[in-house]
Structures are given as structure tokens and as C-alpha cells.
Amino acid sequence: MFSVGSPSMNERSASLPGAGVTSNGPVASVAIYTRREPRDIRTIAMDSSSRTSVALATVLLRREFGASPEPVSMAPDLETMLERADAALIIGDVALFLDHTTVRLKPDTTGDLVRLKPDTTGDDVVRLKPDTTGDDVVRLKPDTTGALAGRSAKALAERPASSIRKIDLGELWTQATGLPFVYAVWTGWQGAVGRDDVTALQCARDQGVAHVADVARMYYPDDPGRQAVAARYLRDNIRYRVGDGELEGLKTFFRYAAELNLATFDGRLRFF
């Protein structure tokens, strides 16, 4: 299965019809964390293990907030990331189990200072109290207007100045476009997969969806708390079928990414 931002997704490849990893609202596991207003983000520490998430963050920051921050590739540690940058992109289990509401920051008083003499103080350092035990699925009232700016972006941006904000990128995408987001699909060279292979993979998808609790127990055999969070995530946040809405969301993402030179897209999606 390939991320939709993978270089393997090109005109010579094709995807399995009807199957993928998608969301239609909060995804919980792909998020930007920041202590600034999103429009004021100048640098962002990126967990670059997912090309799709990096491209999605870049697209949404530009389109929703007019921000084009300088990316810094870093390991996914929120404290270290926010010591180096204005914001942090975190994905996967780290984001899923991170409870940012318990993190307390020292006041940031340096951002608006006018420097008259050479600044030799170094980067602003913000110390965070580590806490990876929580379940943080941000749910907002759905916005079905499809507006790219306006109320949805403003609602996600308005948080107390002293707190870390979490911007769930699956949620922001759906509020901005009115469409689901597709993170990954089964992909291969055109002609490499036959009808029987397609059927087998679709059956494998259905078997997995029917046993999400078992999957969660397998991944976290000694941690019932994380089992519950993972099962809820696999059941409520992630979706596994690619229909007309998902295809339109995928085309829209490719189009937006191409506008920023993050991808090439000829307007066609190819399937086995």
C-alpha cells in the first residue's frame, strides 16, 4: 500500500479500486501542533515519514491560512520540535496518543520584540512536560458548506494564546473542501494485478474491518488503555472504502498539490 504522496504514484501505476485508507472528518493521527496563530507560523518541524501528510500540511497551511513556513525535518518529539520551530507536524501513533491539553508552556514573549542590537540569545526554548498517555480526537461541529476559508479555518485557529493548538488535518481538509481525504491506496504497475488479485485484496480489507478490536489487541497486547484508543480510532476515524466522494477528494488534493509543485497530476486516476 502506497501513500498517495509517494513517487510511485504516477502515470505508469494503477490502484486497487474501492479500497484505501481515508477519513471524512477528524483523523486523530495527522495533526499540526503550534503555539502561534496558524497564519503566523514561519517554521514547521516535519515528521517526514509520510509524504502525504507533509504535502497535506503544506497545502492546507497555504490555502487556509496563507502561511508558507520553512520546513525542518525532525524526529516526532513535540518538545524538541517546538524548541526549534513555530509548529510541529506529527503523525501516526505519536499523534494518536499525545494529549496536548496537559502540556504547559513557558510564556512566549520573544515573538513580537523589535531587535535593535544583534540578537545573541539563540532560539526561543519552550519546555514541555512529556505526556503520551491520552486520547486526543478533536471533534467539531461539521461544516458542510465547502468553503475553503472563512469560518472553518477561523474556528480551528482560535485557541487561548498560552496553549498549544492541535489542528487535525483530516478535519480541516473536510471542513475546507466538503470532501473525504485519501491517505493511501494499494498501488502497482499497470497490468501487474489481475481480477482475482483485486478480489483477494478487497476480501482482506473486509476481514480487517470486521476485526478491528482484534487488530488493536495484537498491536498493544499488554496495554488495555491503548487497545481501546486504537480500536476506536480504527472504527471511528479511519475508513477503508474509496467511493465517488473519496475519488473527488483525491483529485482535489492532487490538483492543489500540483499547484504548489508538490506533485504532478494529469487529471486522471488509473485503476486495475
Helix-strand layout with pairing:
Elements: E1 2-3, E2 13-15, E3 19-23, E4 30-34, E5 43-46, H1 51-65, E6 70-73, H2 78-84, E7 87-91, H3 92-97, H4 151-157, E8 165-168, H5 169-177, E9 181-185, E10 187-189, H6 195-209, H7 212-219, H8 224-237, E11 239-241, H9 244-259
Parallel strand pairs: 5-6, 5-7
Antiparallel strand pairs: 1-9, 2-10, 3-9, 3-11, 4-7, 4-8
Concise account of the structure shown:
This protein is an alpha+beta fold and 272 residues long.
Descriptive overview:
By secondary structure, the protein is an alpha+beta fold. The chain folds into two domains: 2-21 and 185-246 and 253-259, no CATH class; 25-108 and 124-181, 3-Layer(aba) Sandwich (D-Maltodextrin-Binding Protein, domain 2). The chain is built from nine helices and eleven strands. The strands form three sheets. It has a five-stranded mixed beta sheet, with helices on both faces. A four-stranded antiparallel beta sheet has the order 1-9-3-11, sandwiched between helices. It has a two-stranded antiparallel ribbon with strand order 2-10. α1 links the parallel β5 (43-46) and β6. α1 (51-65) crosses α5 and α7 crosses α8. It is globular and about 50 Å long. The two termini are 14 Å apart.
